C-alpha cells in the first residue's frame, strides 16, 4: 500500500510536464515531506487542451457516497481488481490522474517495532503514481478526491512490504492521461511493478510516523 509520501520539488514537476496548461498552480503547492491521507495533494489530469494540474483530497469519495468520510478507507486501490470494484471500474475509463512524488514511505516490522523506509527514484527526479479521481457533490459542497493504485512489490520493495504504488514511466504517463484512450485493457498493462533498478531505499527516523511532523528531517537517512 501507500500511506505517506514526500513531494517538495515543483521544478521537477514542471520539467516532466512542459506542456502543462496551468503551470502557475505549482506556486500554491507547499513543500511536503510527510503528505498523509485526508490532505490536499498535487495531481495532474487530462485537460481541455493538454495536461492540467490541480489539488485533490487524498482518499477517494465516489460520487454516489452518502458521506465523504468513506474516503479514509479508499486511499489505495488494488490494480488487479480496479476494473471490477464499483468504486473504481468506471473511473478507470474516464477519470485517471497522475500523482507526483519525490519518494514515499513504507514500514517494515523489525524486532518489536515498525521501521519506516524512504523509497525514492534512483536517478533522481520524481515518481509519477497512477491514480483515479472522482467528483462528489452534496448540499452545495464539491469535493475532488483521488486514490493511488497499488500492485505487487518488486525486488527492492518486497523485503519491506508486499505491495507498492503503480509507478508510470514517461510512455505510461502519456497513455494514462490520454483522454481519447478508453480501452481498459490497455491501462491494465501499465498497472505492474516498476523495474527494481529504477528505485532505492533507506531507513529513516520514526519521526515520520506522526502525520503532523513535517520537514526535511523526515527523509534523512538513519544510521544504525
TrEMBL record:
Q: What is its EC number?
A: 3.4.-.-
| Entry keyword Iron | no
Please, which domain of life does this record's source organism belong to? Bacteria
Alphabetical list of Pfam families matching this protein: SRAP (PF02586)
Swiss-Prot/TrEMBL keywords: Covalent protein-DNA linkage, DNA damage, DNA-binding, Hydrolase, Lyase, Protease
Q: Name one GO biological process term.
A: protein-DNA covalent cross-linking repair
Keyword Iron present in the record's keywords: the answer is no
Q: Offer an example of a GO molecular function term for this protein.
A: lyase activity
Query: What is stated as this protein's family in its record?
Result: Belongs to the SOS response-associated peptidase family.
Q: In its UniProt entry, what is this protein called?
A: Abasic site processing protein
Species whose genome carries this gene: Alteribacter lacisalsi
- Origin organism lineage: Bacteria, Bacillati, Bacillota, Bacilli, Bacillales
